[in-house]
Write a structure and sequence with these properties.
By secondary structure, this protein is an all-beta fold. The protein is built from no helices and eleven strands. The radius of gyration is 13 Å and the shape is globular.
Length: 116
């Protein structure tokens, strides 16, 4: 069982920055992939980006160049650095992890609100 706890959400003005953290209850180097998703009111959950255990990253087109995913294996934590935030980035952000068997785990989510 993998437990994920997100933190770092909040209210920020457009153009500002936030850094989200996702702390895992296991050694993250054992996980195949960790990612970030978001869900805005009335919309489906969508992928923001992910990072493999090898350190490769992928991003949704909507956040490329603004968001950066990184990992600290020593702290078992993955980060989502969000810069140049826009009102349309407002959503609940969820951390996600996939283990070597393909099981998927989710955090409880953290709210990010970007005011115009």
């Amino acid at each position: 069982q993998v437990q994920l706890v997100e933190s770092g959400g909040g209210l920020v003005q457009a153009g500002g920055s936030l850094r989200l953290s996702c702390a895992a209850s296991v050694r993250i180097f054992r996980l195949n992939r960790m990612g970030w998703y978001r869900q805005a009111p009335g919309k489906q959950r969508e992928v923001v980006g992910d990072i493999t255990n090898g350190g490769s990253t992928n991003y949704a087109d909507s956040v490329k160049g603004r968001f950066t995913i990184s990992r600290d294996n020593a702290k078992n934590t993955v980060y989502l650095q969000m810069n140049s935030l826009k009102p349309e980035d407002t959503a609940v952000y969820y951390c996600n992890a996939v283990n070597e068997r393909g099981f998927v785990y989710w955090g409880q989510g953290t709210q990010v609100t970007v005011s115009s």
